[in-house]
Amino acid sequence: MNRNQRIYLIGICGTAMATLAALLKRRGCEVRGSDQNVYPPMSDFLAAEGIGAISGYAAEHITSDIDLVVVGNAISRGNPELEAVLERKVRYCSLPEAVRDHFLWGARSIVIAGTHGKTTTTSLAGWLLTHAHMDPTVLVGGIALNFGEHGSSYRVGGGRDFVIEGDEYDSAFFDKTAKFLKYLPDVAVINNIEFDHADIYPDLDAVRLAFRRLVNLVPRSGLLLLGADSPHAATLRPNAVSPVETFGFSEGADWRADDLEPVDGMTRFQVRRGGELFGLFESPLLGAHNVRNALAAIAVGSFVGVGASELAAGLRAFRGIKRRLEIVGVAGGVTVLDDFAHHPTAVHETLAALRIGYPSRRIWAVFEPRSASSCRRVFQDDFARAFVDADEVVIAGLFRSSLPESERLSVEQLVTDIETSGRRARHIPEVSDIVSTIVAERRDGDIVVLMSNGGFGGIHGKLLQALAVSAPGADPGSKIGMAR
């Protein structure tokens, strides 16, 4: 592709779109774009990258000098810029097509997929290769703290490898197939498969079909890595033409972790390959699910030629990902964490990890049903079981309350079911009331994890500030103790 192309992105403030804009600019393209609202943090990110972003959509933004328009998957017919593109026959594509055509044809493409753990595993694999001086390019659907001074969603390298998060969500208004089908996988990781994205997939079989199509794209010279602990992922082996290896805790997994042990804030474990000891590893991440993510990244690193000792050193140096059990602050004796969990399995794994990491502390689980899936009744029973490791459960207001009642998650029933299982649960719709409740009932040593795939009304800062000024003996002007 022409490095001097003039490229315009409609919906540029989405995390993936803004990251693509930065990658394209680093490649030598002239990049600009627009979004309905341009505000921090993505406006700051784009400004730091020297990329112009216009607030609001207008047909006149599509000027005659534009070579290519990238259409974000949140953009639909009726958008004035999209209508201008279609009427004038300006060349356009989806985000995953732009990534493929500008970066992947000449790369060894390492695609990290699965219902859960994509961002963490992509960040881990990208960092392990970076630490081993393989100099990969990395594209992550989150902020990896090892990349850049304050963390970044991408890294531009000069090596052969391109490590990319493979999302199963649809590509654009004109292409409802999964993004990861555009990514030309030489190596594909499928960590797990569950029903999700209920707004675009009618059932689990449709999700499984998308992953089967991904498996079918891996060449004979490549590698397919399947999560052995996920029945729906493990059963994809017969669909593969490429070599296949499995990873997990299950007996018979090609890459198997055992002897997990929390030690000094780290998770220590052994890795066996084909039954033989491969190495001893320590991860700064809590939870068995993160050991599984690390196993996948270790297997990727081994495939591209990194040795066990180098992989172990890289894993110890991993700094984590924003919004994945990230400690955002400590105030009034309470530790506040932020987590992206929005699927029942992710909620369960997040809380299980906290219970292991803080066995004697009281854990508050504060959950906002926000995503298209988490607001739906299809997960009613699964959510009722997901909070078993919390001591106090607070369910915020349903973000998508306009869904038909027959499809909508019943928050009241969820609270009743959680309490029936022996956990205290409350429905508190407003952020201000959640904050005042936690402040009024706080105890020294409490852990509060705020779970949402959105901004959650700025609850993180509001809670920390309220805790700081209400603590016994606190100076109203005292600073909040930030962990990072």
What is the element layout, followed by pairings?
Blueprint: E1 6-10, H1 15-26, E2 30-35, H2 42-48, E3 52-55, E4 68-71, H3 80-88, E5 92-94, H4 95-104, E6 108-113, H5 118-131, E7 137-144, E8 152-155, E9 161-165, E10 170-172, E11 175-178, E12 187-190, H6 204-215, E13 223-227, H7 231-234, E14 244-248, E15 255-263, E16 266-273, E17 276-283, H8 288-303, H9 308-316, E18 326-331, E19 334-339, H10 344-357, E20 363-367, H11 380-386, E21 392-395, H12 411-420, E22 424-427, H13 431-441, E23 447-451, H14 459-470
Parallel strand pairs: 1-2, 1-4, 2-3, 4-5, 6-9, 6-12, 7-9, 12-13, 13-14, 14-15, 19-23, 20-21, 20-23, 21-22
Antiparallel strand pairs: 7-8, 10-11, 15-16, 16-17, 18-19
Helix pairs in contact: 1-4, 5-8, 5-9, 10-11, 11-12, 13-14
Would you mind describing this structure in some detail?
The chain is α/β, with parallel strands linked by helices. It contains 14 helices and 23 strands. The chain has 3 domains: 6-94, 3-Layer(aba) Sandwich (Rossmann fold); 106-316, Mur-like, catalytic domain (UDP-N-acetylmuramoyl-L-alanine:D-glutamate ligase); 326-470, Protein-Tyrosine Phosphatase, Chain A (Alpha-Beta Complex). The chain has helices spanning 15-26, 42-48, 80-88, 95-104, 118-131, 204-215, 231-234, 288-303, 308-316, 344-357, 380-386, 411-420, 431-441, 459-470, and strands at 6-10, 30-35, 52-55, 68-71, 92-94, 108-113, 137-144, 152-155, 161-165, 170-172, 175-178, 187-190, 223-227, 244-248, 255-263, 266-273, 276-283, 326-331, 334-339, 363-367, 392-395, 424-427, 447-451. The protein has a 10-stranded mixed sheet with strand order 8-7-9-6-12-13-14-15-16-17, sandwiched between helices. The chain has a 6-stranded mixed sheet with strand order 18-19-23-20-21-22, sandwiched between helices. A 5-stranded parallel sheet has the order 3-2-1-4-5, sandwiched between helices. Strand 12 (187-190), helix 6 (204-215) and strand 13 (223-227) form a beta-alpha-beta unit. Helix 13 (431-441) packs parallel to helix 14 (459-470). The longest helix is centred in the middle third of the chain and has 16 residues, at 288-303. The chain is globular and about 60 Å long. Mean pLDDT is 90; it is low at 475-484.
